[in-house]
Amino acid sequence: MSKTRLDDFIKSLPKKRQEKIKTRAQDLILREMSIQELRKSSEVTQDELALLLGIGQDNISRMEKRLDMKVSTLNNYIKALGGKLKIIVEMPDGKPVKISGLSD
Question: Is 55 helix (H, G, I), strand (E, B) or coil?
């Protein structure tokens, strides 16, 4: 189905269903976002984030390139952007589990 045909199809659905589709699409897009993309989508520069965290801009650059970091570091990064970190585990039975006690 072409984009135009898909757009037309979605527009033909009830408004409530259109909103559910839009919300789900945004959720899926956000799931694949790196922390750098999250920062950019928040319209925050590395310099601004560094000031908020009390560290140098070079540390932000290194942080955004890391493949592994402490949960507390990620939590501080997300909080500085105005967000809240939640860790959800997807279990084989399909039931998601929220992990508690890892961030404040």
Answer: coil
CA–CA distance, 32 with 38 (Å, rounded to integer): 10
Q: How many angstroms separate the CA atoms of 85 and 10, rounded?
A: 32
CA dihedral angle for residue 64, residue 67, residue 69, residue 71, rounded to 10 degrees:
100
Phi, psi of 84, rounded to the nearest 5 degrees = -130, 125
In contact, 80 and 51? CB cutoff 8 Å? no
Helix (H, G, I), strand (E, B) or coil at 60: helix
Cβ–Cβ under 8 Å, residues 78 and 71: no
The label of the residue with tokens 């976002």 reads: 33
How would you classify residue 95: left for phi > 0, otherwise alpha for psi between -120 and 50, otherwise beta?
A: beta
Q: What would the pLDDT profile of 3-46 be if each residue is shown by its tens digit? A: 668 888 889 999 999 999 888 887 776 567 789 988 998 999 99
Displacement of CA 61 from its chain's centroid (Å): 18
